[in-house]
Design a protein that fits this description.
- There is one protein chain.
- The chain is an alpha+beta fold and 107 residues long.
- Helices cover 62% and strands 13% of the residues.
- A three-stranded antiparallel sheet has the order 1-3-2.
- Strand 2 (62-67) and strand 3 form a beta hairpin.
- The mean pLDDT is 91.
- Keywords: DNA-binding, Transcription, Transcription regulation.
- Pfam families: HTH_20.
- It comes from Undibacter mobilis.
- InterPro entries: ArsR-like_HTH, HTH_ArsR_DNA-bd_dom, Metal_resp_trans_reg, WH-like_DNA-bd_sf, WH_DNA-bd_sf.
Length: 107
């Protein structure tokens, strides 16, 4: 993942309302949530929810799909795992991690 993409995604999740929206969609799993149910669940104004959903879609953290008259939102798990990997992949690359060093001493 490019650092600019990671920074944009982290910036989007830095807003408390967007983080709540994203967590609700992650919890919902693959079926996702209808926008109306998401709005009711989080008690957010429709215009506010729409604004935040657009931001999350712009950084590809969520997707939307229209099913007849209903708009379904889903977490983009590939993007989520990519971001988590970006943050963790180089853990302790320049030094021994404390947990790894502790395990080595025990063994």
């Amino acid at each position: 993942m490019k650092i600019d993409d990671a920074a944009a995604r982290l910036e989007a999740l830095g807003n408390p309302t967007r983080l709540q929206i994203y967590r609700a969609l992650v919890r919902a799993g693959d079926p996702g949530l209808a926008v109306g149910k998401l709005q009711a669940k989080l008690d957010v104004a429709a215009s506010t929810l729409s604004h935040h959903l657009k931001t999350l879609m712009a950084v590809e953290l969520i997707t939307q799909e229209r099913q007849t008259t209903t708009l379904i939102c889903r977490a983009n798990y590939k993007a989520m795992h990519g971001l988590i990997g970006f943050l963790a992949d180089e853990c302790c690359a320049d030094a021994a991690c404390a947990p790894a060093a502790a395990k080595a001493k025990v063994a």
